[in-house]
Amino acid sequence: MKDQIDVSVRRSPKYSVFMGIGAVLGIAIAGILAIFVDPADMPMGYTVAKGMGLLLLVLGIGGLFLGGLVALILDWRGRKKAREFRVDAQIDMVDDPKEIARRRIAEARGEDPDSDAADDEDDAETGRDSAPGSTV
């Protein structure tokens, strides 16, 4: 059975990459800002380590968010530039999974996968009855 299908082809960003780069940039900015903090300017009870941890958390999450936002904007622009194509498609009917497995086993044994005698010969060679639960 043949048919024609309309497809849309476009470029799409990988969100995880953009979000990861945003988080790394946020953490790098937090590290740079922590270098310029004077410990004397910190409020009572806070240390530079606590301040840097807070900066890492806030700027890392902010960078993660902004990276995702950039990916969304690029994805939106990519949808505008999408190209439409009409392609020929061939749709095949799918066989029963048990039938596919039987054919693959027959091919692996070197037998003809289209003959039904392969199952009967297999039962005769192993000495099994066709009745389930029977013992020989």
Brief description of this entry?
This protein has four helices and two strands; from the N terminus they run βααβαα. With 136 residues, the chain is mostly helical.
Question: What can you see in these coordinates?
Answer:
This protein has 136 residues and is mostly helical. Helix content is 57%, strand content 12%. It has helices spanning 15-35, 48-80, 97-109, 117-126; strands spanning 2-9, 83-90. The chain has a two-stranded antiparallel sheet. Helix 1 (15-35) runs antiparallel to helix 2 (48-80). The model has no long low-confidence stretch (mean pLDDT 80).
Give the helix/strand layout.
Blueprint: E1 2-9, H1 15-35, H2 48-80, E2 83-90, H3 97-109, H4 117-126
Antiparallel strand pairs: 1-2
Tally the helices: what do you get?
Answer: 4
Residue stretches low in confidence (pLDDT < 50, at least 5 long) are none
Order of helices and strands: EHHEHH
> Which descriptor suits the 3D outline?
elongated
Topology, number of strands? 2
- In angstroms, what separates the terminal alpha carbons? 49 Å
Rg calc: 32 Å
Summing up helix and strand content along with how strands pair, one would put the structural category as mainly alpha
List keywords for this structure.
single chain, 136 residues, mainly alpha, two-stranded antiparallel sheet, 4 helices, 57% helix
